[in-house]
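Annotated sample (chain length 263).
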Amino acid sequence: MTTRPMLGEAARAAGYRLIVRDEVGSTMEEARRALHQGEPGKLWIVARSQKAGRGRHGRQWTSPPGNLYASLLLVNPCEPALAPQLGFVAGLALHDAAVRVTGLAAPRLALKWPNDLLIDGAKCSGLLLEGESRAGQFAVVAGLGINIASCAQGTPYPASFLKAHAPQVTIEAALGALSDAWAARFATWQVSGGFAAIRQAWLERAAFLGQTITIRPPEGAVSGIFAGIDASGRLLLETPAGNRSFDAGDLFFGPPSNHPPEA
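Output written by the structure step:
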């Protein structure tokens, strides 16, 4: 980083704060440490690199310098049952930020259920949401990573990075755009019934909607037509055996023959 990253003006006005580190184990663990030390929330933690970044299902997240590694700590943002909706709020914020810094838009930028941002069909960003109840409080840590200068190679799903499409993108610009977009989308979600608006906006940016996909929940792969998400954010799949819904799972475009075998 040549200059110190800053939150966007709208984020600062909404009361969000920022801590910047050169290197950490993971920004999510730094956020948890801050929570345990009494941090009241609305705190972004950004690192130049991570030694132990991780993604969903405990997968290692490659974290070389040049990309954005950030976590957002929220304290008492909602009832625990509503926390999964924040993943869609964060996904929209990632999409909004990418539009702002690259000048690209849908359908080149799309959201892949449940938590990835795609550019021309390749993953360029992801997020991990974790909740923790402690001392009568409920906290959420949202870990967000954006591939800006590089991406991992040899991944099961194609990957890309923003500079490959928009060389002017910087970490500083991406953080400013992301923090402002989060503040705006989160404010919308906090309004009574706010997930309806978030859900509609997410569906307008959804990858593979109405197309054949394969979803891999823990119990095994299932293929069908991606019919959308329900009022709770569950994926809706139309299959020859009937309609099904899923809370979690890895999503691939097309039938099983189009993607790598299960690990």
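Annotation: The first strand starts at residue 17 and ends at 24.
Annotation: The two ends are 36 Å apart (CA to CA).
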